[in-house]
Amino acid sequence: MAQQEVQNGESEKAAVAVVFTAVKQQLLVEAPKANDAVAFYKAAFGAVELDRTTQPKRKAEQELPLILSAQLQLAGSTIIVADVEANSATTLKTGGSGCVLCLETEDVEAAVAKAVAAGAVAEGHITEGEEGACCGGRVGKLKDPYGFVWLICSPAKKCATAEA
């Protein structure tokens, strides 16, 4: 009887092939701020809302339905924005969840200005070269009203060492 070869992550038993089709970042914001966060991401970054799930038990007299989650399309990626109740099993650190999100654009200044106009706070100035993105790109750093940090980057230039 031939012995099966075990390779990275494979078990000796027949494995079922698993294919992942997407990775979606989830931004957790304090309840009930997800409505505001969705509006901010639309205004600041041109996100498009694909889907929304609201709290079915929300009282009719309350002005806005509580979002359980909203799925947004942004620069070819999908992000999920969700309200998190204070007593939820998922907890938030002050100032967001600690993730950094990067958006790539040719016009860093305009993108930063648009986000600031929508309510973000620029952190420092736009940097370039060794201070900026990989291999001399330009980068602006923002913090959105929900505590998430965004890097607005120009496309990275090819490094001279990589071209050689």
TrEMBL record:
InterPro entries reported in the protein's UniProt record: At5g48480-like_C, At5g48480-like_N, Glyas_Bleomycin-R_OHBP_Dase, VOC_core
Pfam families: At5g48480-like_C, At5g48480-like_N
UniProt keyword list: Lyase
Ranges of residues in domain VOC: 22-155
One Gene Ontology molecular-function label: lyase activity
Top-rank taxon: Eukaryota
Protein name: Lactoylglutathione lyase / glyoxalase I family protein
Species of provenance: Tripterygium wilfordii (Thunder God vine)
